[in-house]
């Protein structure tokens, strides 16, 4: 008793001592202000930060054009959504058919509705609103992250996460004006869906009494609606569904293993129904398609059912005799069911199971060359998650380091709770699941850095929140704790301040110059004003969206950033080869203009690799072009003694000499060959002692000849052919535009004496030599270049004009056949009249027109470049546009794009290379009809043979074995007529 009494007095004494310690008045005042600062001050400061983050993201809005090329396309479809509600067709991509719009069209419908309902009435134009849409989304996301961090951890975690997100490059990269992809609205809606989920799970309710459960119903409804919105916003939003399903699977398992059956039941009753509504409700939206991934949703529902089955076993297994007496038995049950479930899933899906689990894999050569699909390294992570930037480069990666520490603290807390048998809180588990999933995808491909930014920065905020909350839990007076917290806050404040300064500088630099170079602007605007609205153009695929944009040329593009991937191989083949090896059937694309840009020398490793000019090892290790000269740290030297040209480079205190095999003087056109080269390059020397080293395999490629307006001195005939098929019409500071002619005369010889078989010929025309045709009756030898397509059953006609009036039309040859890979000249006699101009016209069957509206089969919109499956039939309706009146054959053209891999299909072997092919298999005639200039509504019954592709593909497999990869099949509606090709014009 005495002992007990002494202890009691001791306690009382300590208590009295603590209670009587006085604090300064200033700390007492701080103590009274501190709770209000947390409750109201942080919210107000977060709004200010979000506004400033918006201003930074809006700096680039002052530019005339968008920074990101994809945004040009997204703007066009946004405009379609404003006009039509849910857009379905875009005519300017993938000519001559256009494309059926797919994916998650909510990306366009959501901002279109916001614009139509609000901003259009405030006087904003479509372009003005579209420029501010992503900065606005970014600002709202900042607020959402604050609310999420506040709900899942603390006010301070939410505040610091919001402050970091506002000025993080990882987040800025997809939310500044001029970069309007789907990731930004996805993250915004996903974050707010998580906020609604947290409030919903926290809210206790009596379902029998709706008056007491309306808050829970409201939060549940918001979670469902916001989940649908984030699914609509981006095709890659499967990531969000995956996070929720993983959380739904993991948290109940933890509750079960540690015997928290009541908590498990509550979570199941709360979360499982709303998650089922999310998935089931999303399915109808895929038919519109506001959501673009029905197959994944079906897979997600199957996963949901598997999780529900496991949960049922966990809840009711004891009733069927399972032993749940301790953690080991419960864990064993989960493990056994999980293994059986995975085995069953693999048996059900087979190898396709991994497709649902994959984020981005370099599964083919094209993906190997896409920068966004590259695997990140620490240098990249450090750059996108830094606090401090110098000249646009991240210096520290501090946000990612903070997130790792925050994650470790989170795991430690979860582990400690598990050790004590306490796992009742879902919040830590969800944060761990979200961060782990985001980090996995982040290290899979650089494209996921933005999606990961939400989780990474949230955990960085958790770290600082942990530190401040730890101070708040100290056994001190409130004023003292508040003082410590304020001091700590002041120590951390420089971090977002530095980030804000640096991001402001970076944004200002981005806003300094247009992303579309002036030479491209001038070229595309010229094309808009000087070509037919039905014309198409192509360049390397990066610039397809510029060509399609209504802000620029408003013309069709053969391939762009998101469409006609198969054509990238074929276009790369053209650019990286010359002569017959570089000829492809561009007329099948309806091509009218080709644009070659000198700056693509920096992309030419990818172009050469995809075109089959080099191996994978050369792609990775040998630059295709290297600028040389004093401004590049090198010198071009000619040694008079050895008669050798070489490039001298000083590096690391040593001097290196690189001796190319060929030197071409671009000023004089002279060619010099070194006797003992030590590098496989050709040196192009320009006036001013600078030049370009070009890898020998591509040094005389079509790209070099067209981009640099140059002839191949090693094969002048090839250059003559190329220039006859591609006629220069505009040269604008390295952006060279050519009119494409499928058939063209590249040389005309005049018989001077003797007979055609053994006479003397004199050249009177080439693309580089133009002479007047001699008047009178003469014998000529016509050299015709058929580019990528044979001349078949054609007629060659000669025409003479006097001041624009036709004075003579003479048929020179009929039933003409020319193999485009083995061209032979045509010998003709022409009585040349005295006229002011002449031309030759080739008449043969060829494609005309383009599709100018959606294609329907049996009343349903279909893919216009593959509208009906082999072996099927149906009633087809479409709109086709023509330049003038024609009598045409409406047909379906079967094409297959494939590549052959002579050294095997392992794309990571150094000797791997590919040979692209584009073959027209056959035409399926449908209907003869007459069409008028402009749009024509056409309908017909269509039937496709079942073996239209299979027979041909089987022949390819017999010829190439496993080394053939069929990349895409096309079954395109086309219109064939007797078409006139102007193959030569002269005076």
Mean residue pLDDT: 91
Number of strands: 33
User: How much helix, percentage-wise, in residues?
Assistant: 40-55%
- Straight-line distance between termini: 127 Å
Largest sheet: 6 strands, antiparallel
Number of helices: 29
Shape: globular
* Spatial order of the strands forming the largest sheet: 23-22-25-33-30-31
Task: State the low-pLDDT regions, or none.
Answer: 1-20, 356-360
Q: Which short descriptors sum up this protein?
A:
single chain, 5-stranded mixed sheet, 987 residues, alpha+beta, 29 helices, 6-stranded antiparallel sheet
Can you put this structure into words, describing what you see?
- The structure is a single chain.
- This protein is of the alpha+beta class and 987 residues long.
- The protein is 44% helix and 24% strand.
- The chain is built from 29 helices and 33 strands.
- A six-stranded antiparallel β-sheet has the order 23-22-25-33-30-31. The chain has a five-stranded mixed β-sheet with strand order 6-5-7-17-16.
- Strand 14 (681-686) and strand 15 (690-695) form a beta hairpin.
- The N and C termini lie far apart (127 Å).
């Amino acid at each position: 008793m005495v002992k007990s009494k002494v202890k009691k007095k001791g306690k009382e004494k300590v208590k009295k001592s603590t209670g009587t310690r006085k604090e300064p008045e200033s700390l007492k005042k701080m103590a009274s202000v501190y709770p209000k600062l947390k409750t109201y001050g942080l919210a107000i400061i977060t709004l200010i930060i979000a506004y400033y983050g918006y201003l930074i993201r809006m700096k680039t809005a002052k530019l005339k054009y968008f920074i990101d090329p994809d945004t040009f396309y997204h703007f066009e479809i946004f405009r379609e959504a404003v006009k039509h509600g849910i857009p379905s067709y875009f005519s300017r991509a993938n000519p001559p058919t256009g494309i059926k719009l797919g994916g998650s069209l909510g990306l366009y419908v959501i901002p279109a509705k916001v614009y139509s309902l609000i901003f259009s009435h405030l006087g904003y134009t479509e372009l003005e609103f579209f420029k501010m849409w992503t900065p606005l989304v970014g600002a709202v996301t900042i607020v959402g992250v604050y609310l999420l961090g506040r709900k899942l951890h603390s006010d301070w975690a939410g505040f610091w996460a919001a402050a970091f997100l506002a000025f993080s490059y990882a987040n800025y990269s997809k939310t500044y004006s001029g970069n309007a992809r789907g990731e930004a609205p996805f993250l915004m809606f996903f974050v707010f869906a998580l906020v609604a989920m947290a409030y919903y799970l926290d809210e206790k309710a009596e379902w029998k009494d709706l008056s007491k459960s309306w808050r829970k119903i409201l939060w549940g409804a918001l979670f469902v609606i916001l989940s649908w919105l984030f699914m609509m916003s981006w095709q890659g939003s499967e990531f969000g569904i995956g996070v929720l399903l993983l959380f739904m699977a993991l948290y109940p398992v933890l509750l079960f293993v540690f015997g928290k059956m009541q908590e498990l039941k509550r979570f199941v009753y709360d979360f499982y129904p709303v998650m089922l509504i999310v998935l089931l409700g999303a399915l109808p939206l895929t038919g519109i398609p506001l959501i673009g991934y029905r197959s994944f949703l079906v897979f997600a529902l199957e996963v949901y059912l598997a999780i529900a089955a496991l949960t049922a076993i966990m809840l009711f297994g004891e009733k069927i005799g399972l032993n749940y007496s301790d953690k080991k038995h419960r864990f064993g049950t989960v493990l056994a069911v999980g293994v059986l479930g995975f085995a069953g899933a693999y048996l059900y899906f087979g190898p396709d199971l991994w497709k649902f689990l994959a984020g981005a894999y370099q599964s083919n050569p094209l993906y190997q060359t896409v920068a966004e699909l590259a695997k990140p390294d620490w240098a990249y992570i450090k750059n996108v998650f830094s606090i401090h930037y110098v000249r646009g480069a991240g210096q520290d990666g501090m946000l990612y380091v903070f997130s790792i520490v925050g994650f470790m603290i989170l795991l430690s807390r979860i582990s400690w709770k598990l050790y004590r048998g306490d796992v009742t809180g879902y919040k830590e588990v969800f944060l761990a699941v979200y961060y782990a999933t985001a980090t996995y995808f982040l290290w899979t491909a650089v494209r996921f850095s933005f999606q990961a930014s939400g989780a990474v920065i949230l955990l960085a905020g958790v770290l600082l929140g942990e530190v401040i909350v730890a101070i708040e839990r100290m056994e001190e007076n409130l004023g003292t704790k508040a003082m410590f917290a304020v001091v700590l806050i002041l120590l951390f404040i420089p971090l977002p301040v530095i980030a804000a300064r640096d991001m402001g500088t970076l944004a200002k630099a981005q806003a300094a110059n247009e992303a579309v170079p002036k030479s491209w602007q001038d070229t595309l605007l010229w094309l808009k004003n000087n070509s037919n609205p039905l014309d198409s153009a192509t360049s390397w695929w990066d610039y397809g969206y510029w060509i399609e944009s209504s802000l620029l040329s408003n013309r069709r593009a053969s391939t762009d950033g998101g469409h006609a991937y198969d054509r990238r191989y074929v276009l790369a083949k053209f650019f990286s080869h010359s002569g017959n090896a570089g000829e492809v059937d561009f007329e099948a694309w309806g091509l009218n203009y080709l644009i070659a840009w000198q700056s693509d020398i920096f992309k030419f490793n990818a172009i050469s690799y995809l075109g089959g000019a080099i191996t994978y090892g050369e792609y990775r290790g040998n630059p295709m072009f290297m600028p040389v000269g004093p401004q590049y740290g090198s010198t071009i030297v000619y040694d008079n003694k050895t008669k050798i040209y070489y490039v001298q480079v000083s590096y690391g205190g040593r001097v290196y000499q690189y001796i190319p095999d060929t030197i071409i003087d671009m000023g004089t056109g002279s060619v010099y060959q070194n006797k003992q080269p030590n590098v496989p390059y050709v040196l192009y020397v320009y006036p001013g002692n600078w030049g370009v080293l070009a890898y020998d395999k591509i040094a005389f490629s079509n790209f070099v000849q067209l981009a640099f307006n140059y002839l191949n001195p090693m094969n002048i005939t090839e250059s003559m052919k190329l220039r006859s098929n591609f006629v220069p019409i505009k040269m604008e500071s390295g952006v060279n535009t050519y009119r494409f002619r499928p058939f063209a005369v590249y040389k005309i010889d005049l018989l001077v004496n003797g007979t055609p078989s053994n006479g003397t010929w004199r050249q009177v025309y080439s693309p580089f030599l133009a002479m007047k045709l001699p008047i009178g009756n003469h014998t000529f030898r016509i050299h015709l270049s058929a580019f990528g397509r044979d001349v078949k059953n054609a007629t060659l006609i000669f025409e003479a004009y006097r001041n624009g009036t036709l004075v003579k039309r003479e048929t020179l040859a009929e039933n003409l056949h020319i193999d485009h890979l083995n061209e032979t000249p045509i010998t003709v006699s022409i009585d040349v009249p005295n006229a002011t101009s002449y031309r030759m016209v080739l008449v043969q069957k060829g494609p005309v027109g383009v599709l100018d509206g959606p294609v329907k089969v049996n009343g349903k919109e279909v893919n216009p470049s593959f509208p009906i499956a082999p072996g099927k039939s149906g009633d087809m309706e479409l709109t086709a546009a023509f330049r003038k009146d024609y009598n045409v054959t409406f047909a379906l053209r079967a094409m297959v794009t494939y590549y052959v891999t002579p050294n095997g299909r392992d794309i990571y072997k150094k000797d791997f290379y590919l040979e692209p092919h584009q073959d027209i298999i056959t035409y399926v005639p449908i209907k003869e009809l007459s069409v008028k200039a402009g749009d024509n509504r056409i309908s017909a019954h269509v039937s496709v043979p079942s073996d239209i592709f299979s027979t041909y593909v089987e022949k390819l497999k017999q010829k190439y074995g496993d080394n053939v990869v069929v990349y895409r099949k096309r079954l395109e509606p086309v219109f064939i007529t007797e078409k006139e090709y102007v193959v030569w014009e002269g005076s």
